[in-house]
Known about the structure:
Strand content of chain B: 15-25%
Largest sheet of chain B: 6 strands, mixed
CATH superfamily of the largest domain in chain A: D-Amino Acid Oxidase, subunit A, domain 2
Mean pLDDT of chain B: 89
Largest sheet of chain A: 9 strands, mixed
Number of helices of chain B: 11
Oligomer: heterodimer
CATH class of the largest domain in chain A: Alpha Beta
Low-confidence stretches of chain B: none
Radius of gyration of chain A: 23 Å
Strand order of the largest sheet of chain B: 12-2-1-16-23-22
Amino acid sequence: MVIGGGVNGVGVARDATMRGLRVALFERNDLAFGASGNSSGMIHGGARYLVDDPAVTETSCRDSGHIQSIAPHLLFRIPFLFPIERSSHSRVMLTLVDAFFQAYDEYQPLKRGKPHARLKADELHQLEPGLRGDLEGGVSFDEWGIDGARLCTANALDAKERGAKIYLGTTIEHIERREDGRVVAVCYRDLRNGRTGKIGTSAVVNATGAWAPITAALSGLPAHTARVRPGKGIHIAYDRRLTNYAIAARTIDGRQIFIEPWQNMTVVGTTDDDYYGNLDDVVANAEEVRYLVQGIARVFPAITAARPIYTWAGVRPTLHAYGKLEDKLSRDHQIIDHAKHGTRGMWSMIGGKLASYRLFAEEMTDVLGRYFGLPAECHTHRTHLPGGDEVIDPFALAERLAVDAVAARRLVYRHGSRARRIEERILEAPREASVVCPCEPVLEAEVRHAVVEEMARSVDDVSRRTRLGLGACGGMRCAARCGQIVAEERGLPPSVGRDLAMRFLVRQSRTRACALGPEQARQEALAIATMRSELGVDAVELDAQAESEPR
Amino acid sequence: MKRVLVIGAGFAGVAAAVAARAEGAEVRVVGTAVGASSSWPGACDDEPWDERERAAGLVGAALVMPDIDAEERALLEALGLHVPEGGSPLPLVAATSGRLRSTLAHDRALLDLGRCEGRVVLVPRASRASWDADTLVLALTEEAARRGLDVELAVCELPVLRYDDERRAHDADIAARHDEAARRDWLVERLRPGIERVGRDQAALLLGPWLGLVRERASELEERFGLPVGEALAATASTVGIRFEGARAALLAREGVALVEGKATRVLAGGRRLRVELAGADALEADAVVLATGGLAGGGIVYQPTEYAAGPEGAEASRSPFRLSLELAGSLVAVEGARRSVGSMFGPDLGALAWPRPAAPGALERVGVITRGTEVVPRVHAAGDVVAAEPRTVLRALRSGLAAGRGAARSVVEA
């Protein structure tokens, strides 16, 4: 029994299923709802941790290399620039940074990264004309970008296709133990319809990230037995790619932040603050946005005139330590065997990174293997994730389907060779080639595929899997139609589809509000007017529903 | 002769011009390109329609047309709207998002489904991102049933797009093609067999916002087919707004009001006359001014946070980040709910203010200039969305426009 649909949970579900265990996975919200879907979108080698935690850097790089070989379609290169401002000690600093990345270069081959280069100030300006400030020089280095939500979906799909049962929108209410402390069953509740049930099990993996202490407490253990240090991180998305390179910058308090070209937009991140709020509803606030923008504006001033299109926020389940600054916390991972707390057959996965999820899942499944006396070995680093087995030519696909080349390219990025399944849908029903979300773009067939094959149940879910509605218009042109399609595929009345669309639009609007600039405020007012005239929101009702049906 | 200058050429500005003219003033309207009225979806309300329906639902009242003032009615009709008789049931228009909503008055091209009772409303398929006939029919069928409206909706394979580029073209481009008689002939000829299969007495036709730009072509098609034909309401970038611009030009010409293209940058109230400076053009003089520049959505109110264009260390002083789009001494812009609190040195927390909250509209909808009656400062009156704390509806804009136009014209006499 795996609890948690983040990257660790689906990673274990996949590995354990491949090794012959019978697996059920429960997720309270949606796949990649927490930290996995709200990360910086990189499986970086963790150069940041090289000084304090070189082992984390090595495992990150090594596993990043594995992810590349099992899901090559999901990766894209993000070259970084690390400029150094001129100061009394900047020359020494540059030499140190150069030496530091020299050390990092050792790990680069593990993830097929390119070695760093030391750059003069004018070379930096040449590479990135938007770069400002009095610079001493800098270095370049190489990282990989990934869509965390797609990575989770691919793992979950693979597990499901190999026989795992996946329950989304279903929360665990109680973990039952026998008198001797052995886990025997979990009681669950479907948050959509309130239905409850109980499933017998002999092993429970708590992979609930920041929720881990809450989950551990469900078995009657004290919450501190699965303690994390929850660190909130926010990101701001800007329309289009504003830079050629990702640029590292420093905040007013000296923290390392960045601006990166990511998929078809630009991302600024990230904060790291202890978080004590509601984990099911984490949103960025204006204060955090201003803090980041101020830091980026020092090296890339054009950011203040750029157009933010939304923000996202997640909570890292960092290893617990008292008294350390957030940035200094270890990014390592750890498996807690609750046998020492009196519960046998239950483990909590704490910490970890997107880049090393596979390794973490392997370690966890090794523990399960020993527990059940299974001889099977891990194959997750040698077996392709769904869609990773074959390269599809997007141009040929575009021609076959008579769709935009961009639409085909994006489709292939998200689904790899599984794009063929969407192609089959369209060949069967040519009308499904129509575009639902023109910003991303997303075809109708992909929306239906996400509902039928990828377990999406709401507009939010479809958006997480396809990036529908995350473009410049914020879903104004597609959410309503997507809602109707989701409702239709799920056999629900259209009014439910409209509610799903409204919930998505309101949530997106909330994530935008804290980052609004002059032009965006005007557009936001137009968006509100539009929604009022066409959909007519009853904000009161919507809030009440959100409480009874968290997503 | 007293001169009134109206700044802004949306619903409020036009109404103000007409009212000031009726008071015997010489009127000029200064307008820029696009405001909220130029992109209005075509349904005209006094209160937001969802609030009206909720209130009616609470007391179990039927949705009937209230009596409206003859002056307002005449103005609405002159601007190309259909206004039902007082006491008759409210029209029900279909939004492209699948919602069926009531409205007080509407652009004549929109199909009133209330008129289609007992009929089969045909919704043709068209391969366009903004038009999904299948989901539209599903959603509208449910909505009609919920309202107890006796109409049947049916998807049909009737050709409405003629050329391949129309799969991607803007709604307005397709609408413009329907201004050509030949294209309408083509449409009538192609659709007639399909319609006759259903029966002329039993059918109605719902199309996208494609029926004419110069003026609405729905009524002409209605006559030729002999059944109700009309558009669905599209809230974003609708063609209805372009038709409004045409109707506005005709109305202002008829009233003898000059429309000056330009953007007002400053209103100076120093001398005997008010002086309105324009960007890149000569200043204009007037005895009174009506400010009808629109709200935040229309561009009359500007959001300018202090950190915007600030130095590398951030903002230096706090002030309200909302202001009028032109300079007008003595005017005060208010954000409802945050009138006094400038939350930080960066201004109010938009994250907490932007979206409408339960029981209170969001700040972005209600921010505007403070008035006494319609007056902002002596001889300057405001109307429409630029006024703080008013619902952003067409009928409200029109009403306040009429009042402000009258007020401005009379203020000259009083002075």
